[in-house]
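User: hey, got a sec? need Transmembrane protein folded
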Amino acid sequence: MTTEPSSPGSALKALAADLVCVVVFCTIGRRSHAEGLSLAGIAETAWPFLTGTAAGWVLARAWQRPAALLPTGLIVWVATIVVGMLLRKVTGQGTATSFIVVASLTTAVLLLGWRGVALAVSRRSARTS
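Assistant: Yep! Here you go:
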């Protein structure tokens, strides 16, 4: 995946990567807090952040350059956190400062990380071609 304009297939793969990253984040969080790993439990934890990810995709028009670190990745990441935390707050779920920090750092590594790797691979293959 490159940061160049995308095909529908590459946009879908990038969206899937973002959604998987968010679910992985929520699954790890539930596991580390011994909350259980049922599908319903993971869905309950993940839906606010997945909603934020979807909002980020719309705001960034991420389907145009889905693997771009800037601005796409940054917008998707910020929206994932901001919308996710707002939804958690209005639904009575936890939004402790320490959770916001950990969630922000973890989702940054995941959502920005795969894009950084894609950029590095793209640049490397461009040099070797």
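Quick note: The chain has a mean pLDDT of 94. Let me know if you need anything else on Transmembrane protein.
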